[in-house]
Amino acid sequence: MSTASDSHSVVTRNLTKRFGKFVAVDNVSLEVRRGEIFGFLGPNGAGKSTTIRILCGLLTPTEGTATVAGHDVARDPERVKLSIGYMSQKFSLYDDLTVEENIDFFSGIYGVPEERREARKTYALELSALAERRATLTGLLPGGYKQRLALGCAILHEPPVLFLDEPTSGVDPIARRDFWDLIYQLSERGITIFVTTHYMDEAEYCHRLALMYRGAMIALGTPAELKRDLGGFALLQLEVDDLAGTINALEREVGIEDVAVFGSGLHIRVKGDLDARPAIRRRLREAGIEVRLLEPIEASMEDVFVGLIEAEERKR
């Protein structure tokens, strides 16, 4: 029986998973709308993979509930598996089969009806831009085309929900951008995309993001919302010649929460209600360091990611 509203494809309520005394997923509640591109971020060991395994019907939660495409992951995991597509960071197709043979194989694995297989094969070939290379051994394809083919195979059975686990890992920036164009196309067709990524620029492409840390969800919102609410902090960009000397000089300055190398300059996180620029200029002048540039900037997703995790660490 469906327990999710028609507008939500993934719903969790107080989702918890323990392995002995270790809490891998800690009281996670979220709702993912139909057709939404939902980013799931966090460092290694944060609980992302365990959560996804639960949502894919591969693990039973210790406490709480989760529904995917309206099916309860604990009571009806087989229906969940039929309702999802999954693509991992490790290329999952067979290198010694041709493009077409891989599509035929996964059509059978996913139970695509005989009368739909030719149409779905055509769709997968067009999606992956491999119609003219259908007889090519998959192992000979460039990385970007392999990922496109894997995506095409993952949706052969037309699932309403697609889980992508680090889908662009190891491919070049142009191939990554092309792959995200495909994700947008699927989203526009109403397919819900649940994606993990370590690329912070890719996080910007998601409609909403959740940040996991030590099993708990510590932030949830659109990229713009998370950047605007940087935990009550503001961000400054500083350009100087002596990066190391600057970091040492500002280490104990009142109001400065963090100084980090970013590109060829520094990003300084300060309390949001404090204009720290006069104090920074004065302190660096005392240290004999010339300031070339010091101005407020909008936080990047990398700044948000680091800032939120450091804020959690200070609570412990």
Give an overview of the whole structure.
The chain is of the alpha/beta class and 316 residues long. The longest helix has 16 residues. The radius of gyration is 23 Å and the shape is globular. The mean pLDDT is 91. A hairpin with a 2-residue loop joins strand 4 and strand 5. It is built from eleven helices and 14 strands. It has two domains: 219 residues, P-loop containing nucleotide triphosphate hydrolases (Rossmann fold), CATH 3.40.50.300; 68 residues, Alpha-Beta Plaits (2-Layer Sandwich). Helix 5 runs parallel beside helix 6. The chain has a six-stranded mixed sheet, sandwiched between helices. It has a four-stranded antiparallel sheet with strand order 2-1-4-5. A four-stranded antiparallel sheet has the order 12-13-11-14, covered by helices on one side.
Give the arrangement of secondary structure elements.
Elements: E1 8-19, E2 22-33, E3 37-41, H1 48-55, E4 63-68, E5 71-72, H2 77-82, E6 84-87, H3 99-109, H4 114-127, H5 143-154, E7 161-165, H6 173-188, E8 192-196, H7 200-203, E9 208-213, E10 216-221, H8 223-228, E11 233-240, H9 243-250, E12 256-262, E13 265-271, H10 277-286, E14 291-296, H11 301-315
